Structure formats: structure tokens, C-alpha cells
Amino acid sequence: MSKTILITGGARSGKSAIAEAQALHFGTPATYIATAQAWDAEMEARIATHRARRGPEWVTHAEPLDLVGALAATDGQGPRLVDCLTLWLTNLMLGGHDWRAAARALCDALPRQRDTVVIVTNEVGAGIVPDNALAREFRDAAGLLNQWVAATADEVFLAVAGLPLKVK
Amino acid sequence: MSKTILITGGARSGKSAIAEAQALHFGTPATYIATAQAWDAEMEARIATHRARRGPEWVTHAEPLDLVGALAATDGQGPRLVDCLTLWLTNLMLGGHDWRAAARALCDALPRQRDTVVIVTNEVGAGIVPDNALAREFRDAAGLLNQWVAATADEVFLAVAGLPLKVK
Amino acid sequence: MSKTILITGGARSGKSAIAEAQALHFGTPATYIATAQAWDAEMEARIATHRARRGPEWVTHAEPLDLVGALAATDGQGPRLVDCLTLWLTNLMLGGHDWRAAARALCDALPRQRDTVVIVTNEVGAGIVPDNALAREFRDAAGLLNQWVAATADEVFLAVAGLPLKVK
Fold first, then answer.
1. Contacts of A128 in chain B (CB under 8 A)
2. Which of A69, A129, C44, C148 could form a cystine bridge with C38, CB 3.0-4.6 A?
């Protein structure tokens, strides 16, 4: 049976490795839907590290904005891993798109998928309140997006030191 | 039976909605003890959003500093929701009050309540160490306050993506 | 039977008190392996507060860099508490040492201990992405170090408001 699974956690908490293992549990080949855009050398290095860890059982599908379209295009080909919601939100906000409408469309599309979707996101709200208004706005949006996707997900895990803690 | 219940979590982790549902479980009408003070437009908007979500079963009791007095004044009228400890601490510290004495008085008062008290607080210590000393001092105080209230609480939950994870 | 136990959590989440109780469960005297170096008055005050809480059943062994050596020197004398990994990492990085090699050596040494080792570390990755590159680099390193030690540990706990939440 196909599922929607959300993996959240802080930076370098092992979310991606947990998500990859869970996706492969639903079969191979698996599709890696990458929302990352390489804005600078640091991000390029991060993307390369993630890609190097994934094995030959993965097909990469890069899509910074149209997640619903990427899910439609890859459904029926095995499990999908969306990595990650937080970068997708960043792309939407920086591009001046309506992130709330996009989030609603995603939450509508998820229960209609035939193949499993594992989604990685970030916990960004557990530090001190940020100084600048844009960071606070992003933090609020990311928290709401996580709540909405968690509400529609079948399973939710919090990654702590590389270990999955079941929340739902 | 009445209880003290603490809900902690990061920004926009769904703490307030979880706390509201838990409080209403103990009956209606319920009293919303609001510690927020509208310092600026951003805070005013946040307060308005929270108030709009609460239904007609809620009576609002605004009290930025004297939480023990607010609990005494509202006991016997149904469950109370204190939202939130972190803003209360901010009010105490900015006003030059002795927050440790106030916290001790609160922890003494909580077990003596006849009606349930659900308390919302924030996780602020899971980010990188803040640059400025005041933010570090606040972060330390908030962490200690959370520990003290959690020690006296009957139940403690960590909100993750809108979902309650039972800690105690 | 001896164990490796990792306690992670945010600032002032009660990690040290939880770790001390767990270590003393394995016998007394217990050795407190302190990685802290007092760079300034704030850190000195923090160290003094921690020391004041520990009772006479504790022997302090200060070691900012050579954790493997400190474990070898104290094995066979009762449980050890390493407080904390994050300061050890800071010392390694600021001193220009190869923290990855040091982390691998630590993870190799831990399963070979005869006496229990309880290790305290910090969650630093659940806030907003830091502005400066050094903070991001430290955050990434701390997250990886936590994952590696958690993978070799027998038990892992997340401290939330002074309460231990079992992760492994």
C-alpha cells in the first residue's frame, strides 16, 4: 500500500538517510525529486554530497517549484522522495509565488498518489527568535507548511542524531 | 480530575491548537489567560490570528505579569489555558522583575489549582548559540523555567509539526 | 553491563542532570570528564554552576582535546560522564585539529570500554539557518558528530524540559 511519510528534523540530523531507507523499502527504482537549486558553491557542495550517497537505484528528477507536476509525472514508477519542503518553500517565496496556494495544492495531491511519497523537511523554529523580519516570516511559513503536510501524512518521524522518532 | 499539562515546541509547531483541544477536553467555558502584550504590529497580528481561531467557548483573561493572581481569579470556572510562558518571562525580564521568584511562586500555585491548567511554552534552545549575551541569558532562563514547570506538571508534550509527542 | 549512552538536547534542556543521574546508576565514584575550557567569565560561571550541582561522589577529569586518552586513563574506575561533545568539537575546530579523525577514533574507542560512558551533546540545528558560514560549518559538524556517536551508542535520549525522551 502506498503511503505519505514526512521526515522532519534539524540540520544534519540524518533526515535524508532515514528518508532514503524508507523510500527504498517500497521498491526500486526510486525517484529522487530534488527541490534544491545551487545558488552558491556551498549549496553545490551539499547537493553533490547528497547525490554521492545515493546509489544506482535512484533516478533524479529536479523540480524547484512545481511539486504537484513532478509527483504527477513520476507516479506509477515506484516510490518518490521529495528533498526537501524547506527549499521548495524558499524557492516559492524568493520567486514571489503564492506559497499558501502551492501548499494547499500539494496537500490535495498527496492522498491521490498511487506510489509512496516520502518527504523531507526541516525544523527551523526551535532556536531563539531571529532578529530580522524575513527570517521570522520564513520560520512561520515553514512551521505552517510542516503542520499541513503532517496532517495529511500517514506517518511522521522526527530525526534526532540520525535516528527516527515516531510522532504519528 | 484536574491536571497541569505543559505543551512545549518550536515556533509554529502547532502548540496553541494542541493546547486548546486539550483544555476543552476538561469542559467549557474555558479561560484563555493571555500573557502577550502587543509591542508592535507584528505581535498585534499574531494575537489577532490566535483569537480568531478560538471559538465562542473561550473567555479571554489578559495578564502579562501576575500569573498566580490570574490563576486564583479564574479557578472554579473551568479549564484554563496559559499562552504562553515565554512571553510571560519576556514581560518579567523586560520589566526588571525577579523572574526566578515569580517562577517559584507559579510552581507552588499550580498543584493547588482545582481546575485544570494547560500551559504553552517555547523551545528556544535548539539553534546555534546566539551572538548576543541578552539572547543567551533569555535562552537560559526560558530553559530553566520550562524544566521547573515540567517537573511539577502531570503531563508534558512536545509539539512536532502540529502533532503532540508525549514526554511525560 | 557497561553501556554507551548519549544524551542530546537544546541549551538548558536539563541534559547534564539527566546524564549525571544515569551515570550514578552504574555505581560510584563516578568520573566527570569535562571538555569545557573557560574562555571568558560567562563560561567560568557556567562551569562553576555545573560543578556545584555535582556531589562528592564525583571525581573531575578535565580534558579539552584527548577524549580517547581520558577514557583510557579512567576505565576500570566506575562510570564516566563526558560533558560535552559540542565543546570538545569547538576545542578541536578552534585548535585546527582534524575533528573527523578525532570523532572516528572516539567511535572506535567507545565499544571497547569496560565501564559505562554517558555522553552529553547539544542539538544546535533546529533554529533558522545561521547568517555566517563558520556557524553553519560548526552546525553541520556537530550534527554529523552526534549521528556518528548515536550510531555506536546503546541508548540515546533527547532531553525536553528536563525530561528524557528515549530515541534508541
1. 124-125, 127, 130, 135, 138-139
2. C44
